[in-house]
Amino acid sequence: MTSLPSGTAARNRNQEMMAFFIMAGLMVLAPLVAYPIFLMKALCFALFACAFNLLVGYVGLLSFGHAMFLGSAGYVASHAAKVWGLPTELAILAGTAAAAFVGFVVGILAIRRQGIYFSMTTLAFSQMVYFLAIELPFTHGEDGIQSVPRGKLLGMFDLSNEITLYFFVLAIFLGAFLLIRRIINSPFGEVLKAIRENERRAISLGYKVDQYKLAAFVLSATLAGLAGATKDIVFQLASLTDVHFAASGEVVLMTLLGGMGTLFGPVVGAFIIIASENYLSRFGDWVTIIQGMIFVVCVLAFRKGIIGVLAEKLGISL
Amino acid sequence: MQIFGISTQALFGQLLIGLINGSFYAMLSLGLAVIFGMLNIVNFAHGALYMMGAFCAYFLLHFFGLNYWWALLLAPLIVGSLGMVLQRFLLQRIADLDHIYGLLLTFGFALIIQGLFRQQFGSSGLPYPIPPELSGARNLGFMVLPNYRAWVIVFSLVVCLVTWYAIERTKLGAYLRAATENPTMVRAFGINVPRMITLTYGFGVGLAALAGVLAAPIYNVSPQMGAELIIVVFAVVVIGGMGSIMGSIVTGFGLGIVEGLTKVFYPEASNTIVFVIMAIVLFIRPSGLFGRSL
Questions:
Q1: In whole angstroms, what is the distance from residue B45 CA to residue B103 CA?
Q2: Per CATH, the architecture of A11-20+36-314 is what?
Q3: Is B283 within 8 Å of A132 when comparing Cβ atoms?
Q4: pTM for the complete prediction?
């Protein structure tokens, strides 16, 4: 983007905030028409996709292994809630911190390669985390960690009530969404976009590109972990599905369909994919086939994604 | 007989399995390297096409009565042709875009192909017999060597070396390497580069299918057989670097052997050892053992 007149930037921000309030309003009303459990699953994946998008959309790094953060945070949060008996909010924080740690370790190594190698590296590391999840004793292998207690929020609100739980999850989602928006619009975010557009130029301007990339990677991993920890508290289950690379593929699909590098795209993509999985689940393997077809169509003809195209048509920033 | 407190039968047995896996790693990463060199695409569908090679052998046997030897010839041609169609009509369109789109598109291919086969044949494996000429085993004194496994190792080694020779030492290979460096210049010399690109993709895919035929009698034929393998092969590619043909071959076989030895000495780590090595290589030599910096 070349230098916008400051009025335009301000208008863009206003449009984004208006869109945000519309989205938040819809989500508050959503339990009137849809099952809370379905909505919570969609919200968790929406957060997961937003975290993933922070990396692919704004730094240009395509991670093919983001499930490792979703899954490992889920395992740690579930273990903390069930075995250590931590209160729910601390269990979620513990899971998120675990994902941040995994993100830091993997990030240091993965950002040493660019482009396509970065994708392959993250995929390989996530497969390693998957094998560890099978073999480590505390994850209980194929069984996973079952009947994780939902507990009480701050010792006051009983989260076994689905509506209470829904608004708790919604609050986490909206807070994280605003945080991501804040990161993208900050000076830090501008440097990230500069790295995406022209890494060598950014280096020549004196930015320590690797540090910026690592910071973005850890942030993305942490937020993906927040999604995973919350999801496992909702479903009261931590299982291998969340560390499997199919989950990494799914989040790529959600973001691609909704629009890479758009603020709202991953949310829309996540809701569409989760809803379609719900309705198509009885057709078994056709879900995979249809998802493959969406990939092919999006890459060949629809690279901007739903929100990307919508924003272009309306001439606004979303 | 024992070495380091481990019976030679166990040691050489695992070493053999390691070499077998290594020959599949080598053939698949070789194909990935050749394709990446020409098309700048990391072919995520490689595992799915390897699986199709195995299924091709199964169909040829059950519907046309064509035995293993025919499959060895026909399956790479059939799957390779399919690959060329995919390249000509779909991959061609994204040639000028960022590399990640190639990865995403071929990932879509992999999902569709694997989904269709699972839909049709379920997740369990279908048996494929070892050809009668290669059944049985011979006793080498320190271990019993099944003939078919020896054949797989020798045959894939020959295929890899022939490919290396063709690319590094023949005129056709010289065109190929030149087109990798500077396609516009090679076109200016009157060489049909787009056709060469299509044929290269077909060749790489054919190698994957050939590996699939070789694998069929060992692992059975199942829709998921390539899904996990491709991830390990990606790690192999990151370790070796895609810049060198010989590098892919050596890294493939080498990692197979290391994996086999890990199974003997520290079995808990046998699934993760390749990834651990990848982490170490990334730390010490980020461009890969044989790679050029990218």
A1: 9
A2: Orthogonal Bundle (1.10)
A3: no
A4: 0.91
